[in-house]
Structures are given as structure tokens and as C-alpha cells.
Amino acid sequence: MLKKNYFFIYIIIFFFLIYKINIKKNIKIKKDPLKQIKYLENGRKLYFIYCSNCHQKDATGLKNLIPSLNNKNKLPKFIDKTILIIKNGIYEKIIINNKLYNNQLMPNNKKLKNIEIAEITTYLYNKWGEKKNIIITANDVNEVLENIN
């Protein structure tokens, strides 16, 4: 009986740890309508300046060269991965929806400030992602980038 109780305690601890780890992998969702409107508008402008040349204004991409972003299956599930891609670019082969992209997919954007990355990410996920009505802040971006460096 005592061994059985320890087993259940270990199981509970195990699931708790998994739950905590998964929470850390994603940004906490914040809701603030006025701030969201500002972030969406600024994010839209920044997307058109920095992203739409390759990903297109409607985020359909360039067939076999640049992946589409306008499908929830194309944006990474975890927002922190999107932040890292925007900041550091992608220089390796990747497969998206069983399609191989084999060229330099995206250059880095080291010149973008954390607030600008936050606004672009907020725009992407609200416009084309599976997460709606969220705000990614400059603090969120800073936290992701600090954890990597």
C-alpha cells in the first residue's frame, strides 16, 4: 500500500513538472484592447516594410521559395520560436507541411528593436495564427532572447 502511494505521488510530480516545462515554452497571453490595436497597427506597418517583400502582403509566400504564413499550420505553435526566427533568421533546410525549403529562408533582423519584433509577432498571430486577441510585449521578446543568449 505504501509503495502504491509513492507511485502516485511520483506520477503527480512528473505531470506537474511536464506542465511547468510546457508553460515555460510559450508566452503568456495578455489581453488589453487598446494596446492590442496599437500593436496590430504598428505590426502591420512593420510587416509590410520588413516581411511582405518575400512573404507577400497576403502572406501567401513565393511558392517553392518562401513559405506561406497565412495558414495556422505555417506559424510555429510556440511564439518564442517565431520571435527567434524574426530576430535571427533561418539559414538551414526546413520542412513545412511536407515541403522542403532548401535555401536561405530568411535573413536576420538584428536591427529590429524588441518592441518592433513584439508588434510584428502580435500582428502575425492575430492575423494568420491560431492564437487570436493576444499581445506579445517587448518584455516577452527580451525574455526569449535572453534565454537563448
Description:
By secondary structure, the chain is mostly helical. The protein has six helices and two strands; from the N terminus they run ααααββαα. The radius of gyration is 18 Å and the shape is globular. Helix 2 packs across helix 5 (114-127), helix 4 (79-88) crosses helix 5 and helix 5 (114-127) crosses helix 6 (138-148). A two-stranded antiparallel ribbon has the order 1-2. It has a single domain, classed as Cytochrome Bc1 Complex, Chain D, domain 2. It has helices at residues 2-25, 33-50, 52-55, 79-88, 114-127, 138-148; strands at 94-96, 99-101. The longest helix has 24 residues, at 2-25.
Helical element count? 6
Helix and strand composition category? mainly alpha
Radius of gyration: 18 Å
Shape: globular
Largest sheet: 2 strands, antiparallel
Walk across the major sheet and give the strand order.
1-2
Supply the number of structural domains.
1
- H/E element sequence: HHHHEEHH
